[in-house]
Design goal:
alpha+beta; three-stranded antiparallel beta sheet
């Protein structure tokens, strides 16, 4: 008979302890984000796809040295540049990234001694078409400038 009442007491004690924890958690602030309506700001170390970094005038800092292209183990970067007539240095004419092949290793960003490329904070890149993941980074920089 004592065992029966001890079991009931332990069950009620367990119930009240559990309800106490639930009651405390109920009044804590929420950490859930209503995703399509609210977006998170990504932390500084987040690695999205690479993007060109503009200089003060909004032009790409890239000097078309090709170190990022050579450092990429996935061979997903292609760039080209031309030296304008009377100009001293090459100007970037094409900078493409095939994000379907990118492993986000960061070798390209580390190899760029001019700080011309960096990781983006963009994370919502869902698509069913491969073409949507081949980025023209020069065109994207021009669109940001506007």
């Amino acid at each position: 008979m004592v065992a029966y009442f001890t079991e009931i007491f332990n069950g009620l004690l367990s119930l009240f302890i559990g309800m106490g924890i639930t009651f405390k958690e109920f009044f804590k602030p929420t950490v859930t984000v209503a995703y399509p309506y609210e977006t998170l700001t990504m932390c500084a170390r987040y690695r999205g796809h690479i993007e060109l970094v503009p200089d003060e005038e909004g032009n790409p800092k890239c000097v078309v040295c090709g170190l990022c292209e050579k450092a990429c183990p996935s061979d997903c970067i292609s760039l080209a540049g031309e030296k304008p007539e009377g100009g001293k240095k090459k100007e970037l004419t094409k900078y493409n990234l095939d994000f379907t092949r990118c492993s986000l290793c960061g070798s390209c960003v580390e190899s760029c001694s001019f700080g011309a490329i960096d990781f983006s904070k963009e994370y919502n890149l869902a698509s069913t078409r491969k073409e949507d993941f081949i980025f023209n980074l020069l065109q994207r920089l021009e669109e940001k400038k506007k």
